[in-house]
């Protein structure tokens, strides 16, 4: 009996091990057959590697559509998780020699890292068609364009239209900080009638919401909205530090508690889509999530308000988060087919129609039709783009990692462990240090 | 070292070669890179000991190291106490002891990432709801302060690993010869004395194994840290492993991150080796 007992645990361990190996085996088998197919016939394989997992399925549908018309091309989309993971995977793929043919880059600092690997796309039709101001992040030191803008993204305060109506607030009249404050107070007074836990849901656990997005809004004017100016700057002044603090505290004071352990999914799914809060500071990328939770809410009840910035009231921060870059080291026919694919995607009538049909996004190219954008947040922000009421994103020109570090200081401020001047000073010092 | 026959070397050659390729070579390469400005793709110049001297003034690294030391200290003690406690429970003549073993061991089968998310839910939502219901402030806002983040991580780790440590103790407890126990009983030793003077010295090797395991595991924890707190709030619960990953992949300073990893390796080795040495001396041979 005693020895039986002893082996119980090992049995469990063993079975766990077997399950694990079984999973691995499956993966390998699947890959194996994939490769087998590819070698048949004269099909050109183009491997596209990118970091937007949320668009993966739509991309695959899009490429299938393209492959139907161009049977000689096989486009393989692979995607890895958000931000950090993608770039570390890309890096290890490059250092191990398993380079993708096409990959996405976020801005000047990545472009700088991969400058020797990406093709000059200055003459590509999709670059010609790009909307003014969308190419800055993909321009190298010699003025050559090294990437095709993928789409645009914008953020602001997403609000619940139904609640604004009920509270008798006209969102169109909110421009200045004072207007916003008044609206927030009105909403706060009617918390119980509206059935909300708080006017805002500030995700204190997400350093990027504060360090990248909120800070960007108040830093953009001092760099003239130009990410290259930020990228080349040795210092940061924080001219609008007080304005930023004011906006942060407004969100914090009227937010659902506790702020510091609230994360993105709680903010968007649990609080905003379930109508437990009236406003969140987020961007158009939340649309697919909202739609999954509640299509009616996502498509009818969500509006966008600009974060109030003095002298820039009614401006929304919009820019290109990702560029497509083509690997210069790929085979000539692969490069040719990759270029043709992007030409189709961004300049061909059919391609544009397919993209608009499949992807909910803010276009970065002329030739897209604002009425064809189904998603309301995207459409509303695109209208700001058309009216040129936008603020450029400069956080892609931050020193690497600066945004999350600064976000962490802001978290410390929210916890009461640090005063605001100290936070700003730390931000300035870290910026200068990494630019030495 | 004693001379071995050629057959000895022949038989361990496959393992040696594999180990060299996946551990030895990368280790040496990594060590080499710490003296360069390597960014993951290539390097331009040698920088000597610059990375190492910079480490000493890196507050964030030092605070993550201090956090890790505190965390390891607390969790090693709790893990061994609870692991041994569980082992003692399930080696009693209980009807349910087989069932209990399985239950206690279960958390170990769940991956660290998933566990982290499960406990995040428990700490934030379940604790929050209970706290609200019973009006206990202490249960609300877990993981939103450095202290609750610390204890959250300790609870998670202890919960996950205690079952594994239990298995080790069970193995040794069952090897305690019955006649020694019986002899002590005849000599009139009570349960406490019996445990202290007979069982405890005989299971000392289990301590060596468990202390070594728990110490090295809690020092190197990454996935639980990532999914439970992600270093937050404001990097106060960031452990060394996470700080290294952050430096290498977020700040994009590969060589500097590598230098941190080398220092970390040396640090962990010193602790682990000295601890094994010390515990070995205390063991009783039968």
Automatic annotation (TrEMBL), chain A:
Protein name: Raffinose/stachyose/melibiose transport system substrate-binding protein
Source organism, top-level taxon: Bacteria
InterPro entries noted in UniProt: Bact_solute-bd_prot1, SBP
Keywords: Cell membrane, Lipoprotein, Membrane, Palmitate, Signal
Automatic annotation (TrEMBL), chain B:
Sequence intervals crossing the membrane: 7-33, 65-91, 103-130, 150-172, 202-222, 261-278
One GO term describing the cellular component: plasma membrane
Highest taxon of the lineage: Bacteria
GO biological process terms, semicolon-separated: transmembrane transport
Membrane topology annotation: Multi-pass membrane protein
Residue intervals of the ABC transmembrane type-1 domain: 65-277
Record flagged with keyword Heme: no
Main localization of the protein described in the UniProt heading: membrane
Subcellular location: Cell membrane
PROSITE patterns, per the entry: ABC_TM1
Keywords: Cell membrane, Membrane, Transmembrane, Transmembrane helix, Transport
Entry's family note: Belongs to the binding-protein-dependent transport system permease family.
PANTHER family named among the record's database cross-references: BLL4140 PROTEIN (PTHR43227)
Protein name (database record): Raffinose/stachyose/melibiose transport system permease protein
């Amino acid at each position: 009996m005693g020895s039986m007992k002893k082996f119980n645990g090992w049995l469990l361990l063993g079975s766990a091990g077997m399950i694990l190996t079984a999973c691995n085996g499956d993966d390998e088998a699947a890959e194996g057959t994939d490769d087998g197919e590819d070698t048949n016939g004269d099909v050109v394989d183009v491997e596209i590697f990118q970091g937007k997992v949320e668009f993966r399925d739509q991309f695959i549908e899009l490429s299938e559509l393209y492959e139907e018309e161009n049977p000689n091309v096989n486009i393989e989309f692979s995607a890895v998780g958000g931000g950090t993971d993608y770039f570390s995977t890309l890096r290890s793929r490059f250092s191990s020699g398993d380079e993708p043919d096409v990959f996405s880059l976020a801005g000047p600092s990545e472009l700088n890292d991969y400058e020797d690997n990406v093709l000059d796309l200055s003459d590509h039709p999709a670059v010609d068609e790009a909307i003014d101001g969308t190419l800055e992040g993909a321009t190298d030191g010699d003025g050559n364009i090294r990437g095709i803008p993928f789409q645009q993204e914008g953020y602001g305060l997403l609000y619940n239209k139904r609640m604004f109506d009920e509270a008798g607030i006209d969102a169109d009249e909110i421009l200045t900080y004072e207007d916003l404050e008044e609206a927030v107070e009105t909403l706060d007074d009617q918390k119980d009638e509206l059935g909300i836990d708080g006017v805002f849901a500030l995700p204190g656990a997400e350093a990027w919401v504060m360090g990248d997005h909120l800070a960007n809004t108040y830093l953009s004017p001092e760099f003239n909205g130009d990410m290259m100016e930020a990228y080349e700057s040795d210092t940061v002044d924080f001219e609008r530090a007080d304005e930023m603090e004011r906006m942060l505290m407004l969100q914090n004071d009227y937010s659902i508690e506790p702020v510091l352990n609230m994360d993105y999914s709680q903010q968007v799914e649990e609080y905003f889509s379930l109508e437990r809060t009236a406003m969140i500071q987020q961007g158009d990328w939340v649309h697919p999530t909202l739609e999954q939770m509640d299509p009616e809410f996502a498509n009818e009840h969500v509006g966008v308000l600009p974060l109030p910035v003095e002298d820039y009231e009614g401006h929304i921060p919009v820019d290109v988060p990702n560029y497509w870059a083509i690997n210069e080291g790929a085979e000539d026919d692969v490069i040719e087919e990759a270029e043709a694919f992007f030409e189709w995607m961004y300049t061909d009538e059919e391609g544009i129609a397919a993209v608009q049909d499949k992807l909910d996004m803010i276009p970065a190219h002329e030739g897209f039709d604002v009425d064809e954008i189904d998603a309301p947040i995207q459409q509303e922000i695109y209208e700001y783009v058309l009216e040129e009421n936008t603020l450029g994103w400069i956080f892609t020109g931050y020193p690497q990692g600066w945004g999350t570090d600064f976000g962490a200081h802001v978290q410390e401020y929210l916890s009461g462990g640090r005063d605001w001047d100290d936070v700003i000073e730390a931000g300035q010092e870290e910026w200068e240090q990494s630019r030495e | 070292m004693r001379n071995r026959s050629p057959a000895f070397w022949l038989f361990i050659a496959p393992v040696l070669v594999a180990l060299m390729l996946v551990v030895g070579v990368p280790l040496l390469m990594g060590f080499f890179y710490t003296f360069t400005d390597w960014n993951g793709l290539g390097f331009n110049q040698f920088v000597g000991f610059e990375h190492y001297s910079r480490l000493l003034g890196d507050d964030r690294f030092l605070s993550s190291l201090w956090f890790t030391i505190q965390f390891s200290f607390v969790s090693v003690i709790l893990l061994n106490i609870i692991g041994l406690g569980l082992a003692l429970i399930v080696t009693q003549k209980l009807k349910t002891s087989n069932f209990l073993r399985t239950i206690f061991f279960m958390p170990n089968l769940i991956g660290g990432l998933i566990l982290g998310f499960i406990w995040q839910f428990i700490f934030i939502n379940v604790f929050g709801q209970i706290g609200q219901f019973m009006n206990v402030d202490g249960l609300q806002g877990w993981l939103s302060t450095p202290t609750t983040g610390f204890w959250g991580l300790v609870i998670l780790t202890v919960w996950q690993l205690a079952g594994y440590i239990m298995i080790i103790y069970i193995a040794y407890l069952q090897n305690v010869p019955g006649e020694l126990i019986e002899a002590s009983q005849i000599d009139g030793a009570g349960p406490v004395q019996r445990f202290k003077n007979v069982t405890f010295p005989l299971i000392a090797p289990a301590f060596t194994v468990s202390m070594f395991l728990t110490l090295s595991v809690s020092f190197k924890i990454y996935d639980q840290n990532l999914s439970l707190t992600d270093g937050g709030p404001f990097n106060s619960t960031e452990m060394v492993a996470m700080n290294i990953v952050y430096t290498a992949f977020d700040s994009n300073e590969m060589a500097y991150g590598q230098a941190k990893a080398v220092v970390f390796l040396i640090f962990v080795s010193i602790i682990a080796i000295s601890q094994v040495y010390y515990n070995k001396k205390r063991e009783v041979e039968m």
